[in-house]
Amino acid sequence: MNGLLCKSCGTMYPMNDPRWRCDCGDLLTVRFRARFDRKKIVRRKPTMWRYREALPIDDDDHVVSFEEGMTPMIPVDLGAGTLLLKLEQLFPTGSYKDRGAAVLISKAKEMGIARVVEDSSGNAGCAIAAYAAKAGIECEILVPESTSPGKLAQILLYGAALRRIPGSRENTANAALAAAETTYYASHSWNPFFFQGTKTFAYEVWEQLGFRAPDALLLPTGNGTLLIGSWIGFRELKENGLVDKMPRHIAVQAENCAPLLAMFRNGLDSVPAIATRETIAEGVAIANPVRGKEIVDIVRETGGEVLAVSDAEVEKALILLGGKGLYVEPTSALPVAAFLKYPGVRFGDVVAPLTGHGLKANEKMLEIASKGRKKRRKEGRTTA
Ligand SMILES: *Cc1c(COP(=O)(O)O)cnc(C)c1O
Ligand SMILES: [Zn+2]
Predict the structure, then answer these.
(1) At 334, which helix (H) or strand (E)?
(2) How many CB atoms are located within 10 Å of the residue 193 CB?
(3) Which of these, 20, 178, 285, 353, has the minimum number of CB atoms within 10 Å of its CB?
(4) Residue 221 CA: which ligand 1 atom is closest?
């Protein structure tokens, strides 16, 4: 049966019930029978909506889309081996979060929702704000007061209302939960429809590999919006007999903020409280991911692992990518850094997304680029 399921208490709600969590307080999952018609798929436009029968939107008129998706996937020789990179930085708002926003906001439109709230100063906020603008849905984005103004430009330009919340990131999350008592919560971590969009990442990888699954996926992971989405997508393909195996889902975290690594290594069933430090991989600096258990269960079930890389390793990977003509934000370099650091992951077809555009983080990128230049000059001198 289709609907919104709470795995914790077993309650099932109708699919178009405008709620984002169970009455018991726990997370919801979308139960939906995805179907695939390969003949139809290959004839349609190259967008994520070519998998129309697999997306839980009832009426085509409710689809909110910039014709996004079907991002290129290219092999890149990294010296240590070849990684298949999917260029997710090419989405309309500059990150793969558009996959989630497209389906979530389409569903909001379908339910006749007039106003949404989200908390994120980063790419999820940008994506929700852009799709809400396209849908004519009012949008409020809550951000920590400390967020740099540069990062807010995109959200403001899309016409979203910005509310700055004093104190920590946690304070902002709590303020969003309070606002969500009365406004539909378009959260990229809580709202289950977001993952119905990010799952299209898996479909595209499947199609681009010639309708088969890769051996492994290297995914930068904080809240797990891409990792969980990818797993949903491949599981649906498997249930339909369209792939014969699940790819290993390998989560890559920043060493300075790695709760999932602690959970995985120590065999824990919930996210432990951990000490964190600042990291340049700000996109995955999530100390307490609400779907932490779901993420680590997926990693375990698919024979994957959780890996972590340092900021220095991320910078090196960024410079390497730049030298190959690929300009992405620091968080996006995590899988490449992990690929270079851990020989164990270099087996068979390994796919990694480049999650966000470098133009989002120009100031940071300039620092990294000039450090890299200095270093190259120094090395040049010593070998001369
Ligand atoms: C959101 C995001 C990720 C993945 O983060 P999750 O918290 O796991 O959803 C990775 N890279 C970038 C650039 C992102 O914006
Ligand atoms: Zn429940």
Answers:
(1) helix 334-341
(2) 25
(3) 178
(4) 8
Q: 335 CA distance to ligand 1 centroid (A)?
A: 12
Q: For residues 78 and 342, is the Cβ–Cβ distance under 8 A?
A: no
Q: Of how many residues is the chain composed?
A: 384
pLDDT given at position 381: 59
pLDDT tens digits for range 203-216: 999 999 999 999 99
Whether this model's pTM surpasses 0.90: yes
Cα distances (angstroms) measured from residue 343 to each of 220, 245, 252, 348? 17, 22, 14, 12
Q: Whose CA is nearest to atom 14 of ligand 1?
A: 283
The set of protein residues with a Cβ atom below 6 angstroms from ligand 1 is: 95, 97, 122-123, 220-226, 283-284, 286, 329, 331-332, 355-356
**E strand intervals along the chain:** 3-6, 12-13, 28-31, 73-77, 82-86, 115-119, 138-144, 161-165, 184-185, 216-220, 248-254, 306-309, 350-353
Q: What is the mean pLDDT of the chain?
A: 95
